[in-house]
Amino acid sequence: MILEDSFVTNCSDVYDVISGHSLIIPRAVEMIINYFMPGDASREKRLAVSQAIVNSNPETYEDIITAILFSKAYLLDIQRPKSFEENFLPLLDTLKWDVKARVADLDRDMFMDMASNERRPTYLGGMAWNTMSLKIGRIPNVPLDALSFANYHKAMRETLLTNARSYQGAVNEETGAGLIFDEEGEVLPFIADLDAEEYIDYLFLNTLHRKATTMERDALFDYLVNVRNFTDTETIIDIDHEKIRTNNYDEFTEIVLDYVSRLPELYYFTSVSQSEGEAQ
After folding, report:
1. Rounded (10°) CA dihedral 186, 191, 195, 197
2. Contact predicate 207/94, CB 8 Å
C-alpha cells in the first residue's frame, strides 16, 4: 500500500509514517490539552496554549504536559471539575494514607480495584470514568450526571475521608506514623498542641487548602465539643482551651472530613479570579 510518499507493507511501516507525520504533534497536543482545559468557556485559552506548545516544537509527551501544567492559563484561569484520580490520590498523600494499614476497600490492590473491580466503591466504571477501556480514550469532561457523581462522592467519603483507620497511623505493627498518631500510637506532638478549633482548621487546610470560615468553625465546634463531648477543657494563662481526648481523635476527624466531603469546592479546580471573588 502506498501512503503519500511512503511504501507501507507492515505495521512498523505504518507506525513510522504516522510518528513522523507533520500533524502528529498538533494532534497529540490537542488530545492532551482537552483533558486539562475542557469546556467551551476555555476554548480560546485552550487554542492559544495549544498553538504556543506546537510552536515550541515539543519532542516528548513530557514536554507537552509540562508546558500545559505550567502555562499561565492553566495555573490561573482554568475552572473545571477534578477527576476522581486528581482528587483522591493527592488526598491519600496529604492525609498520610498507609497501604500497610490494610483497610478494606483501600489496600494494596487499590489501583486494580479502580481499574477493574466492580464490587469496590473506587471502581472508576461506576463513575462512568473507565480507564483503558475505550480505544479512543476517555471523554474530555468528567461525568457529573447524578449516578456517576454519587459514586464519585461515595468513594471519596466512605473509602477515605470517613475511614480514619486508613490514615490515622499505628493501626497495626507494620503501620508507621499517620495524620494523627506516631509509630508508637502516641498523638503526634504538633497535633497534641492544637486545640479543637485549631485542629478543625488543620483538617480544612489539608483538604481544601483554606481555614474553616467562622460559621463553619463555630458550627463544627459546637457539635463536636458541646454535643459529642469529644474534648476536655484546659486553662492556660486564664484562657480556656478545648483539647481533644486521645481516644476521640478518629471520630472527631471523621466528622470534620464528612462535612468537607459535602462541599462542592472539594470537587473543583477554581480559577484564581474566582477564588479571590469568593474570598471577598
Report:
1. -130
2. yes
Task: Please answer whether residues 116 and 103 qualify as being in contact, where contact means their C-beta atoms are separated by less than 8 angstroms.
Answer: no
Write down the pTM of the prediction.
Answer: 0.81
Among residues 153, 151, 263, 158, the alpha carbon closest in space to that of 203 is found at 263
The separation between CA 120 and the C-alpha centre of its own chain, rounded to angstroms, equals 18
At position 59, the amino acid (one-letter code) is E
**Cβ atoms 178, 98 nearer than 8 A:** yes
**C-beta neighbour count of 40 within 10 angstroms:** 7
Q: Could you tell me which residues come within 8 angstroms of residue 259 by beta carbon, excluding any fewer than 6 positions away?
A: 216, 220
The residue behind cell 506548545 is 53
pLDDT in tens, 166-194: 998 878 888 888 999 998 889 999 999 99
